[in-house]
Specification:
The chain has about 400 residues and is mostly beta strands. It is built from two helices and 25 strands.
Amino acid sequence: MRRLSLVLLLGLAACRQDAPAPAAQPHVVRDAAPVRYASEKGAYAVTELVTGLEHPWSLAFLPDGGLLVTERPGRLRRIGADGQVSPPLAGLPDLFVDGQAGLLDVALSPQFARDKWVYLAFAEPTFRGNKAGTAVARGRLEGDALKDVEVVYRQEPKLSHGTHVGARLVFDDGGHLFVTQGDNRVAAAAAQELDKLQGKLVRIWPDGRIPDDNPFVGKAGARPEIWSYGHRNMQGAALHPVTRALWTSEHGPQGGDEINLPRPGANYGWPLATHGIDYSGKPVEGARGRSVPGMEDPHYVWEKSPAVSGMAFYTGGLFPQWQGNLFLGALAAKQLIRLELDGDKVVHEERLLGERGQRIRDVRQGPDGALYVLVDAPDGKLLRIAPPTDAAGAPGG
C-alpha cells in the first residue's frame, strides 16, 4: 500500500510540474496607432489590440462580440467586446506543457448559443506525466470558468515528449468534429500504422462517439476514429466556404510543408513520401521519394518550409479584393501567407506582414470582416487587419 501511494504521489507531482507558472496580466493597447502596409491588392492596416499573451495559440469569437484565446502554457482567457482581458478561466483539464505541447486550439460548438460547449485541443499527460498525447476536452462556459468538463477524445498510446502534437479542431456541416494531429516525431513510422492515432486526422461526433461511416470502422487492426493517415504535423484546418470540403496544412521536415484536402481512408505519405529532408541534412529515414504509388501527393507544397500553422478562408466584406483567398500563418517565415484560388487550385501566393518579423500562429476572420492574427512569442500579440479607413476596432468589432 505504501509503494502504491508513493507511485500515486509521484504521478500527481509530475502532472503538477506542468501547470503554468504565474504570468503578467496581458493588457489592451489603448489608442494604438494602426500601421499601414502595401499589398498587391491595395493597402491594409494592422492594429495591436492586446499584448503580453504568452505564446498564444488559437482564438474563437463569442456571440457577445468578445473572444476566447488560448496560451500554450495552459491558460484560456476571455477578451471582452470592450477589449478587457480576463484572468485565466478555471476548469481546464490536466495538461502536458513542454516544447510544442500544451493548450492548443479552441473551438465553439456549432450550437454554442444553446449548449455553451467550448472545445479545447491540448496535450494530455500520461499517468506518470512523462509523455503526452493529443486530446480534446469540452466544457460549458459559465462566467469565468468551464463547467462539466469531459475528455471526448484522447490519443492512445501516448508517445510524445512534447513535439508534433498538432492540433486543430473543425466542425463540418454534418456536425462531425475533425481533429488534426502530429506523428509525435519520436516514432515517425507510426503515421503509417493504423492501430495508432499518431499522424492521423480523426473524425468523431462532438461527444466522442465514432461515426458509423468512418472509413476504417469494422476493419481489423485499424482505429475506427481515423479519417486519413500519413500526416506529419497538421496545425492548420478550415472548411472551404463554397465546397465545404476540409482543407488542412501540415509541417514538413526541412522543406515540404503541405496543404491537403483529406479524403476518407487516404494515405498522405509521411514518412515514405516527402518533399523535405531531415534536419540533419540527410534524407528522411525510410523515405522513398517525393511521390509514392498508392499515396496522395500534396495538393500544394512549399519546397522551403515557411512552417505553416493556422489557416482561414476570407469571405468578409472589408476586403472585396481578398474574397475567397486562403490565409495561413507562417512561423519560420514570420509572415502571413495569402493564396489566391481558381476553384481548388492555388494560382498565386503573396507574403504579408514580413516587415514585422513576427511568428504568426493563427489567423481568423472576425464577424466584422477583419482578419485577426495571433503572434506567437513570450510577449505575444493579438492583431487586427483592416482597410486603413477602418483600422480601429475592438475584438469582434
